[in-house]
Write a sequence for this structure.
């Protein structure tokens, strides 16, 4: 860990000292301001003879776990006629903190691999990628996705009304992702290029993840059911136990961060899934619990969850995944709620090594939903505690 951190710092310092605009496809911009029309021409117009980017403008700065900006290219006549993308959503690891977290954890590499190796083979609603690359030494990276703004109906947050139809659409997408990656030989082969989610999670411990989750759990007492909060000293061990159980399941590609803000409603009404920087090899159960518990109101989750687990495992089998008995699936679903919860308690009280990623009101609402589900479902008992 110390060696990797020292290398990232040294490479970052070298990038800053030798800062220059990016002009060819072999170069990676070290900031959004170092992007040039020549570089955009090289990465966006290579397959369109005569097409050229003549200029561009950037949207507002939007930093969190990654450095995000929208970018709007201007094209010559050949580029316009070819229908090249008029708007792009870009994610990068330009800042040192982002290179540290997403580089060491494997998040930047995982998302690049998803968009270049997995996304083209999946028939799911997810962004289209126009360019994705990472430098494996410096962990500098950039991913350029099609801007969803003109074609989406709604980006989701904790106020989004999740109907039964919408959550079933989410589960069909997850079942397709999981099932296809279990069944299709080419996808199974490409999974070897992804770290396990267990490895991803364990590497985050070097950035104070455990301290952040424990502090966040205590800081969120106001929204955690009292009966569940009384187990505060048991939660971390349960979180790790759930991780080991997830890792022991047959591996597929799991998204691993399926909170509601990473979903959008496409123009056709189907749910789409973005932000693949936490994806990795794991069992399917964490995605199922996380999406259901975080996305639904407490009341609707209580009403629908047993039917939704049945719905998911039916579609998982239909998509090439294993046939799973309902009670086995429901137990695995119950067990993973502490794992999903950890992602939001650390978000509420991030340690110095992890960026501040989400507003407090959203974070508390998602903690409330996930902690209430863990209490309702007696997640600790499902883990044998």
């Amino acid at each position: 860990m110390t060696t990797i951190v020292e290398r990232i710092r040294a490479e970052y310092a070298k990038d800053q000292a030798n800062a220059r605009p990016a002009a060819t496809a072999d170069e990676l911009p070290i900031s959004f301001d170092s992007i040039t029309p020549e570089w955009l021409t090289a990465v966006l117009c290579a397959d369109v003879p005569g097409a050229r980017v003549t200029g561009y403008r950037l949207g507002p700065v939007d930093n969190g776990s990654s450095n995000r900006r929208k970018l709007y290219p201007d094209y010559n006549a050949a580029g316009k006629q070819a229908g090249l993308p008029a708007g792009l959503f870009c994610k990068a690891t330009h800042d040192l903190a982002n290179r540290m977290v997403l580089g060491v954890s494997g998040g930047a590499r995982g998302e690049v691999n998803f968009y270049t190796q997995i996304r083209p083979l999946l028939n799911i609603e997810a962004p289209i990628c126009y360019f994705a690359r990472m430098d494996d030494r410096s962990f500098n990276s950039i991913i350029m996705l099609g801007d969803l703004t003109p074609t989406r109906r709604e980006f989701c947050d904790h106020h989004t009304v999740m109907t039964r139809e919408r959550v079933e659409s989410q589960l069909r997408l997850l079942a397709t992702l999981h099932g296809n990656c279990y069944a299709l030989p080419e996808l199974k082969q490409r999974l070897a290029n992804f770290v396990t989610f267990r490895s991803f999670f364990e590497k985050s411990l070097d950035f104070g993840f455990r301290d952040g989750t424990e502090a966040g759990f205590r800081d969120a007492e106001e929204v955690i059911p009292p009966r569940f909060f009384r187990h505060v000293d048991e939660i971390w061990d349960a979180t790790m136990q759930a991780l080991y159980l997830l890792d022991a399941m047959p591996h597929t590609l799991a998204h691993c961060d399926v909170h509601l803000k990473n979903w959008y409603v496409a123009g056709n009404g189907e749910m789409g899934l973005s932000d693949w920087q936490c994806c990795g090899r794991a069992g399917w159960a964490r995605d199922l619990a996380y999406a259901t518990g975080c996305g639904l109101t407490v009341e609707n989750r209580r009403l629908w969850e047993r039917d939704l687990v049945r719905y998911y495992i039916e579609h998982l089998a239909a998509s090439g995944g294993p046939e799973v008995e309902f009670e086995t699936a429901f137990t695995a679903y119950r067990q993973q709620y502490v794992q999903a919860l950890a992602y939001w308690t650390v978000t509420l009280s991030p340690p110095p090594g992890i960026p501040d990623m989400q507003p407090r009101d959203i974070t508390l609402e998602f903690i409330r939903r996930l902690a209430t589900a863990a209490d309702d479902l007696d997640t600790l008992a499902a883990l044998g505690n």
